[in-house]
Write a structure and sequence with these properties.
The complex is a heterodimer of chains A (120) and B (111). By secondary structure, chain A is mainly β. By secondary structure, chain B is mainly beta. Chain B is 0% helix and 41% strand. In chain B, the strands form two sheets. In chain B, strands 1, 3, 4, 7, 8 and 9 form a six-stranded mixed β-sheet that branches. A three-stranded antiparallel β-sheet of chain B has the order 2-6-5, with no helix packed on it. In chain B, a hairpin with an 8-residue loop joins strand 7 and strand 8. Chain B starts with 8 loop residues before the first strand and ends with a strand. The chains are: A mainly beta (120), B mainly beta (111).
Chain lengths: 120, 111
């Protein structure tokens, strides 16, 4: 069973870069079964896709965030990462990493989520 | 991509059945039998409840069922229990070159 764990700073200053890592256990990030995904949820609001990466390194990003987002994968560490630049208070949210099934498009494994607050 | 449309809230009494709708377009819900549903309790990560319109992952109660007609998918919960009170989100596959489209979420209250 795949398990995911987000890690990174819980507080980021405005205009700086938010950096989070998702560590995968119980499975290989090199598996071709999943897109490795980031999703966020502002307090009291719905789920928002940030983007995803395949094991090949191919990425898809939310158009509304595309200019500020980079998702990368480190197969040696079985991790994938998120960088979101030039953050503002609007980027304050719980950030989740999750697996997105390659064939059927569902999110079957989720990390517990990590709250990132953008504030000076 | 526009978000899928869900009712903001639904409610039901214990033992009753409720249905949550999820309306998309011919580019997402209507084109693929790849709708999934997620349950989210406060402070918790979403949990997959239904995938491929009507399939249940191992461990999910058979009180949860899914269906689809045209551009609208539905989640039905029968025999409502207090523990079912949560937010529910639908998500539809929208093509291989992009990720899925979420619904706005529905808050289920068990009266």
């Amino acid at each position: 069973q795949v398990q995911l764990q987000e890690s990174g700073p819980g507080l980021v200053k405005p205009s700086q870069t938010l950096s989070l890592t998702c560590t995968v256990s119980g499975g290989s990030i090199s598996s071709g079964s999943y897109y490795w995904s980031w999703i966020r949820q502002p307090a009291g609001k719905g789920l928002e896709w940030i983007g995803r990466i395949y094991t090949s390194g191919s990425t898809n990003y939310n158009p509304s965030l595309k200019s500020r987002v980079t998702i990368s994968v480190d197969t040696s560490k079985n991790q994938f990462s998120l960088k979101l630049s030039s953050v503002t208070a609007a980027d304050t949210a719980v950030y989740y990493c999750a697996t997105y099934d390659f064939w059927s498009g569902y999110l079957d494994y989720w990390g517990q989520g990590t709250l990132v607050t953008v504030s000076s | 991509q526009s978000a899928l449309t869900q009712p903001a809230s639904v409610s039901g009494s214990p033992g009753q059945s409720i249905t949550i709708s999820c309306t998309g377009t011919s580019s997402d819900v209507g084109s693929y039998n790849l709708v999934s549903w997620y349950q989210q309790h406060p402070g918790k990560a979403p949990k997959l409840m239904i995938y491929e319109v009507s399939k249940r992952p191992s461990g999910v109660s058979n009180r949860f069922s899914g269906s689809k007609s045209g551009n609208t998918a539905s989640l039905t919960i029968s025999g409502l229990q207090a523990e079912d009170e949560a937010d529910y989100y639908c998500c539809s596959y929208a093509g291989s070159s992009t990720f899925g489209v979420f619904g706005g979420g529905t808050k289920l209250t068990v009266l």
